Structure formats: structure tokens, C-alpha cells
Amino acid sequence: MRARTIASLSWGLLASTALATSAFAQTTQPQTTGQSPAPGTNATDVTAPPPASPQARNENVPDQTEIIITATKREENVQNVPINVIALGTRRLDQLNISNFEEYTKQLPSVSFLTTQPGVTTVYMRGVSSAGGTNAEGNHSGPLPQVGTYLDEQPVTTIGGTLDVHIYDIARIESLSGPQGTLYGASSEAGTIRIITNKPELGVTTGRLDVEGNVVAHGNMGGKAEGMINLPIADRIAFRGVAFYQHDAGFIDNIFGSRTYCGDTIYDNSDPPVAIGCVHNGPTVTNAGLEKNNFNDQDIWGGRAALKVDLDDNWTVTPTFMYQKLKANGVFFFDPKLGDLKIDRFRKEVSRDRFWQAALTVQGKIANFDVTYAGAYMDRPTFGISDYADYTDAYDQLYEGVGGLYYYFALHDANGNFVSNPQQFIIGTNHFKKMSHELRFASPADKPFRVIAGAFYQVQKNFIHQDYRIDDLAPELSVNGFPETLWLTQQKRKDKDYALFGEASLDVTPQVTLTAGGRLFKYDNSLIGFFGFGRNPGIGDIFMDVGETRPFTASPPNGAFSSKTGVIQCFTESGQRLSDVLAAGGFSPLLPGVVPGSPCTDLGVFENGTVKPVHAKDHGFTHRLNAQWKPQENLMFYATWSRGFRPGGINRRADVGPYAADFLSNYEIGWKTTFGPFRWNGDVFHEKWRKFQFAFLGANSFTEIHNARDARINGLETDLSFYRGGWTINAAAAYTDAKTKGNICTFAQDTDPNCGSQIDVGGGTIKQDFIAAPSGTRLPITPKFKATATARYSWPAWADVKAHVQGGITYRGSAPSSLRTEIELVGTLEHVNPNVFQGRLRSATLVDLFAGLDWPRWNLEVFGTNIFDKRDDLSRQTACGSCTRALVVPGRPRTIGIRAGVKF
What we know:
By secondary structure, the chain is mainly beta.
């Protein structure tokens, strides 16, 4: 369905419907069938009281400290769940004006992330991060995520970027810290984030409409329009629909930039002469005509629809569908050396990120057992054009001592002249598809012995296309069949997971409960396709054979003079790689590419006359053991020993082996208390991360993943809330101390005694290994301390109008931007610390203010976020493995706005 059609339907829904506020929508409604509400339908939040109800009028106000969650796959009061959970309910999400990932993670102290732009984000919890200085962990061929993301009952965890689901008409967001490997499985190694939508309500017609306009400091105007409707279709059928449109103003300026590259080569006086430098009299490239202020604006639109069908008093079917599209321009980072929020980019850059998901949840009973089926299919294509001039700049500088870019690379056009613009740019697409199924059974929750058991299956596929281009590059120097393409990645990735899981709880006494759970898992991850440079198809003397008649022997072999990667490593009809055939003095034609659109296949395994995917397979078991003690009502202590895992995978380069699964063991003691209007929860934990997967950009900015050494993580988490009269106070904080155990080296891995010395890296090649991160290095991205607090006061203003003021503050400490404390620049022996040239993530304190009026049907509010306009470093990174220009992704600058809503 085209975007214009989606937008028309969305606005039609908004314009044709009388809509109501979230507070009214989440008030408990009578069930026409007598059935209890579906999970997630009527969760309350620790905020100001809901609109007047019979109980409220009788001064019997419902307990505002009761938050119903489904983190354990049962409906339970959060105070009875023996794990660390922070739940942001509907009213609090509305009051904080939360609509995206960046905004809600401000309220989750245990969550940190690395991002380049919305939708290209890698999430971490409790400091479990091994980022190597660039977003290698978010690479399309990188490791799977460590934090799982769920939309309702369905996993939406994706490779290469967490879905930035638009937050509107959401029942709650649950943040589950620590390994959730028993009930949630792979990629919930460090924790899980669950986004629970409001479900259709039977027999109720209600809705809401909200609009907002805002102005961003250093930028333009933005705004959003959102609406929801709930309609009864029949006695046992209800519909709920949501539509939204949001325009985010840009605030990054693309300023004039100019580059002059090496031209003439400087030689010494030896015979033959040796290049020792260059003169910067080569081509000069500018971005004239591309200068633009506030060029990183974006638009997001979409909708969500759900049906609730009560088949009878015991069985309910809930099909849902969600569509969302993001269109962004420019980039979301700046170069501090060019000025605040300034960057110089040499291409017009755009990105498109669209996804839709169809899901089905069936809930019912067999005898006295609850039965739940949850299935979903998601489709997510992305497209982007990205400037990659930083790579060209870096290599021109690195090879300046041997003549620069034009001497070291063969960047010629079809006429044999140097190309006028050596800068690269990338045309990239990913087409991600995911299907998941889960079936589980739960025994009655009111019995002293309770069991949950089920089976899970999912398959994820990604069709990867990354086209690195140089304008006018000669066809014989390009990837075969792709003129002007210096490097091509054309791959298919498939990740499959199977699991059987179960958890049993026994009330040993009314005060003591023991829980044991386990998960049998199996994964099968595969990768096949092409990556690398092309190969000059001509006949020449590259093998020093004067009478050469074989193709693929001409020089230069490609634009990078490479004979290690790409077509030269493709499989031939003989079953050997082209490099081996040519080196042996023979020739065999190339096999056609297995992946459509590829020249041949160099990533795979030759079997029975064809090339098949490379597989990484394994199986295992994870567990969770828990004891909880309730010495009195509203007081609970618990102890947990749990284990999570992340599947292993495949390195594309033949000289880099596959990497294994890594495991996180968690030892945790916690407490949950409620005293009248006051609630205080917390925990202390110790975690051991075994042979963690370490992803970094190696040679030619090529992603490599290795199993490194271990890490240990100690921490404390706490959250509290208070409600009395017109006051509502919420606060949460986390302290995390995460460090490596053992040296991490570039080539030698694990406990290899050669770590830090000369080592054979294959093929008789000896390289000087070095310690990339010494033992005791702090894990990156996560600050040692992060805290957030919100205070809200409301009071009767006049008649039936209430007024409110609200203030929020978030503090995040500084953190390393890279695990690596030393890297070797390509082409030199120079070792540098990425945390020096790239910079640490700086500490920041953000303040938000709100004030407004609430009528029975209308609401009006003015607000300001990031009032003091602080630069909140979301990420610091570089564009490539040998790049040294720091690129800083900031949080949104000060934003002042006004919003209004209506309900009926």
C-alpha cells in the first residue's frame, strides 16, 4: 500500500471520529460477556487519579500503587513479581509526552543505547555492551541483539536496528532488567523491553484526538497529530484503531566543505624510486549547493488496528495490524570541530524505514488451564543513500606517505584518467522479514503449585544490499556487472530459533515461594552471498606469465588493488575458489551467484556442485531459579540466579572463523515495598558475561566478531513512587560498574598466551598482535550512574477544571564510547585510543517542564523539554575502522511546544 494511501486513511480516521482521552479510555469498563479483561487492557499507573468514578465520589479512591503487568506471562501486580521491572503506564506516557524510543528510555535508568539515527539503534541493559567504537554491533552481518523487544505478545527484535515504534495509546512499557532467557529466550540475554498496546473494549464507544506544535532550538517547527477510536461492532466484537503523523524539525546544519586530495607523488632517489609522500594538488571536491540549515528533518506516519472477538466466555481472538513509515533527510550527527550542530556532507542523503506487522493472539481455557497462542509476521524494508567521504579522507591521509589515495588505489575512469571525485557513497537496502509462533499453557494462578510451559519458533530473514560507489569508476575496476561500484555486499541472512520452555512455582508456605524455570534452545543461523571488490576480467601478466591467456589476470585487478576479497574468492565450476585455480595455473568458469543480483558467490560452502549457506548451529539450556519471601503484606524480598544467552554466528571473511554463543549469568537480590502512598523497589546484582561477542571494524572497515574474554558487572537499581493529594512523584536510578576480565587482543583470542605478541594469523602471515583492551577496562556506552525523577502537582482551578504543573530531570554520567583502548591505523604502525580522538560520552543533565489545564473533555498544555539546551551525547563514533573524525549524535535540543486534546 502506497504511503499516500496510508496517510489518507490515517487522516480519514482522525477526521471522521469523535475521540477521547487516554485516562477515560483506560477506566475499567463493564464486560458484556462477564469475561475478565484481556492481559494489558486496563493496567493502571502510579500517577494522578483517574476521572471521577463511583468509588472516587465515595472517597474510596482505587489504590494508585497497583500496576498490573504481564512480564511473567501472567497478569500480576508488579509488586508481586520477583524481578526488576519498571512499568510506564498510559497516563504517565501521556503526561511525559512520550512518543519514541529516545524519550521513553530517558525514564529507564538501566537502558543505554548506541545510535546513528532513528531506527538504527543498538540497545543495552545493565552495562552489557562491547561496542568497538563504531556501530559494528548494529551491522547487518553483525551479532544478534542482546536486548529483546516485544510488541504485545510478539517479538519484534530485529537485526541492525531496534524498531522505533511510535508511542500512542499504549497501555504500558515494561522494562525487564537482567537475563530473561527462560520465558523470552534468545536476544533477551541482558533484558527485555515490552510495548503493550491498549486492546479493544467491548460495548464501549470512545476515542481521543491530540495535536501538538513545537519549535526546536537551532532548528525549525515540528508537530504531530494522533487519534484513537474504540467501537463496538457486535456484542462480542470490538474494534480499536490508532492513526498518527509526526514531523520532527531538523537541527543539524550542513555547512560548506572542501577536500583536496593527494595528486603528484613524491619519490626518493633510490633505484627504482620508492614513493615517500604526495603533493596535495589532486582534485578538489566541494559540497557547493548542498549547504542547508536544519537538514535532518523527518516524518513518521502510520496506524494500528485491532479486533477483539469473544468466541464464547472462555475464548478470545485478537488480530492486530500495525503500519509505520519513517522518512528522514540528512544525518543526525555533527562534527564538534566544525562547530555546534555543524557537519559537512558531500551527498544528498535520505533514509526510508517502513514496517508492517500482522499479529494474532488467541487466549482461552482447556479445563482449568489458560492457553495462549501468539503469532506474527513482520516485513521491514529500508533504503538509504549515505555519504562515505570520511572513508576516502581517512585513506588518503593514511597512505599519504606512499603517494596518497591516487597512488595506492586504481581510481581510473573508462578513459584511463583519474576520476575527478574519489569520494565514495553508499546505496543501501535491507529487507528484513520475521515470523514467530509461541504456544503456552498456564495452570491456575490461585493454586499453591503453578506451571507455565510452552514452545517457541521464529525465523528471521534479511536480504542485504550495500553498494559502495565512486562516480565514473571504470567498469573493469568495478564489481563485475556493477559499473562504478567499488565494493558490493549482496547477501541473504537467515536466523532460526527453536525452544521449549517452562517455569514452576511452589508456595512452600504462605510467605515463601520457590520458582524454577528452564529453556531448551536450538539455533541455526546461516549466511550466503557476495561481498567485496570486483575482478578485472581482462587478460594480463598479473601472475608474471608473458604468454598469459586466462581471463581475470589483468592488472590492476580492481579499484583497490585487492586480491583477497570479492570475485577473486568466488567459487568456480571446479568447486575451488578462483584465487586457488589461478594460483595453480589453471582456469575454471565462475559459478553464477546464488543470491539474485550478485556477480558470483564468495560466502558459502561448496557441496555437490553448488554453493550452500555457511551455518552456525548450536543448542543448550538456560535456567532461572528464584526464591521470594513475604514476611508481611506489601513487603517482599527475593533472590534470583538466572542465565541468558545470545546465539553465535558467522564471520564473512574466510580467514576469520565463526563465533560462538555468549552467556550472561545473573545473581540478584531485591526488594519490593509498599507503605500507603509510598512504594520503593530495588535490587543489587552481580553478573558474569562469559566469552562475550566482540564486534569491531577491522581491515577495510570490515565487521569482525570474535569471542573475547569475560566481563563482570556489579550494580544497583532502585525506583520509588509517591502519591498523595495532588502530588505524584516518580524516581528511578541505576549504578553500574562493568569491566573486562582478562586482556582482549586483536588477533589472539580467549586465553591464548600469544596475546600481545607476534602471532601467525593464517597463511604464514605473521602480525604483531597488541592488546586492544587490557583487563579491567570499563565496558562502554553505559554510564556508571543514571537517574530520573518526575514530580507533578494538580489542583482544582475553577468549576470542573483542574490545573497541573510538572517537572522532570534526568541525569546520565559520562561513559567510554569504545571498548577498545588501542587500535592500529591501517597503513601505519600508529596505535591510538578511540576514546581520545572519538571522545567519551559526556555527562548531561536534562530538565523538562510542563503546565496545563484539564477540562472533563478537553486538555491544554505548554511544555519545554531540555530547557537548558544541553548537548546530550547519545553516541560518539566514527564512519569507518580507520577514520578518526569524531561524529556525535546529540539528543534533541531545547523544544518548546503546546499541545491540546479532546475526548468524547
